[in-house]
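Might I ask for a little of your time on a matter of protein folding? The record follows directly beneath this note:
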Amino acid sequence: MRSVFISVLLILIAATVALSLFVSVNFWWLAGFFIAVFCLGVYDMLQTHHSVMRNFPLFGRARWLMEYLRPKLYQYFIESDTDGRPINRIDRSTIYQRAKKQTDSMPFGTQLDVYAEGYEWMTHSIAPLNFDKINHDPRVVIGNKDCKQPYSASIFNVSAMSFGSLSYAAIEALNAGAKIGGFAHNTGEGGLSPYHLKHGGDIIWQIGTGYFSARTADGNFSPEAFQKNATLPQVKMIELKLSQGAKPGHGGILPAAKNTPEIAAIRLVTPNTTVYSPPYHSAFNSPKGLILFIQQLKQLSGGKPVGFKLCIGHKSEFIGICKAMIELDSYPDFITVDGGEGGTGAAPQEFSNYVGAPLMDGLAFVHNMLMGFNIRQHIKIIASGKVLSGFHLIRAMALGADTCNSARAMMMALGCIQALQCNTNKCPTGVATQDKGLVKGLVIDDKKQRVANYHEDTVKTFVELLGAAGIADCGKLTRSHIYRRVFMNEVRTFEDIYPSCETGSFINGKVPEKYVHDIERASAEKWN
């Protein structure tokens, strides 16, 4: 686009100058106009704050023009996202405002329909706490009895997004932002790349079914390759991906055209070949096998925190994992619960829309199981799935999460405008593309600060919400702090909707009837 713009305008300038010299001086006005346009376009290409304008000089300005002209109240309407759940457009605007350090306050009060089914709110206290009496940087130590290198994690971190899905510039900006803000950056299952390591931000290295960056030539897990990367000082935790919310139960494909020599070297695969990630792991085939494999990863990594990520499917399978933990007296340091509403540019629509439990249902279930079996004290829970705001952090923690990860919001802080071109390699902002011409639009030094800004202000708002509720410690949040309107004239707390389980209740024979069948079916020796 840049070369076309320059070529066309230079031709027009040359033509109008020639007409001015040989036909009529009146053409100087037109030549001056084209020169001014050319200068404005050059400015667009050189500025560093707007990726679309850098990639599409002059034409990129149309986006901001349309935003200015459209009715202002349209920004506050409740829209429906691709999965059909109501999404508050204000949350999206807030992400951009916080990333850019713009005012995110709102005139004329609540812009939501508070009587609509699904509206949620939190309780506040008549005696709220002052902001300066609450920890401004709440952190959670992840690591249980078998962990030699516990990690102090922020309550809000970058969720799994691979190099290959995102551009090298996007990966660098995310990691550099994590370094500035003191939070963690999950690599996604596409391997540990130099772009993840370049800026020194804390890394959560995700291992998927393809074992990228930790595999043998035939695609099996390689202890030697894993140990080489896992012991790097920047790698703080290892996350074993069992399934993801966007396409649970579905493997991935890296087309030969995208499998460049660079990506192949990172993933330890043969370049220019189609690489298939199977839908299941080859390193284990049972709940006990999973726990034993996690033990192996802990040893190979030098005792770093190791956990697993999944989207809840068959409940009996997760219960089988809990039984295996108890039998072996061995526990993952953390469990990341992904929601079926998670997003990716490479998932079949049916899997995105109709497979896997949504985050809140899966999160409440996992917390209940760990509490009922009296093993919650060994394991931290990370929530991942459309976490965009301070309220979303509050809501997830009320359901049982210790920390939260976000992918979508971090992409938007980078400058993603939701052009929905993630799967076409034509992302106009340079975030989700490998087109080097488009990637040039994303200036790392500018975007890394926006990522850090967004994280900082979102955590600050979370802390302020805690204070408003009269709570100094986020561990004291309960499901009774959150309300949801289920019908026009009926409101319930999250405790009503997702009843809690008492600590050790399953061991004492007090199993809620809705869990009895799944617990009876669950086995530590095999999946369903």
About this structure: Residues 139-467+496-521 form a domain with the TIM Barrel fold (CATH 3.20.20.70). The CA atoms of residues 45 and 54 lie 4 Å apart. The longest helix spans residues 444-468. Confidence is low (pLDDT under 50) at residues 69-87.
